[in-house]
Write a structure and sequence with these properties.
The structure is a single chain. By secondary structure, the chain is α+β, with helices and mostly antiparallel strands. It has one helix at 4-18, and strands spanning 29-34, 38-44, 56-61, 67-72. A four-stranded antiparallel beta sheet has the order 1-2-3-4, with helices on one face. The longest helix is centred in the N-terminal third of the chain and has 15 residues, at 4-18. The protein starts with a helix and ends with a strand.
């Protein structure tokens, strides 16, 4: 799945189930960084100097949509 929108959709589905208390107010953006064979997907913000905040992060494989490296940011 080379499609970034699908990676974001997978992230949102997992987040809804496993982290329903996500801070969508302070981290409204679903960011997806191209890591070659996978997408690094996480919640982000445009506020300077704001990072992490205990939000969910994961990798989504481009070839089959497999999820890995699921963790909370620091």
């Amino acid at each position: 799945m080379p499609d970034v929108e699908t990676a974001r959709s997978i992230f949102l589905a997992v987040e809804k189930r496993f982290h329903p208390a996500a801070d969508v107010k302070n981290f409204p953006l679903i960011m997806a960084n191209d890591e070659g064979d996978s997408w690094a997907v996480f919640r982000g913000t445009t506020k300077p100097g704001t990072m992490g905040g205990g939000q969910l992060e994961m990798r989504v494989a481009k070839c089959n949509g497999a999820i890995s490296d699921v963790h909370f940011s620091k």
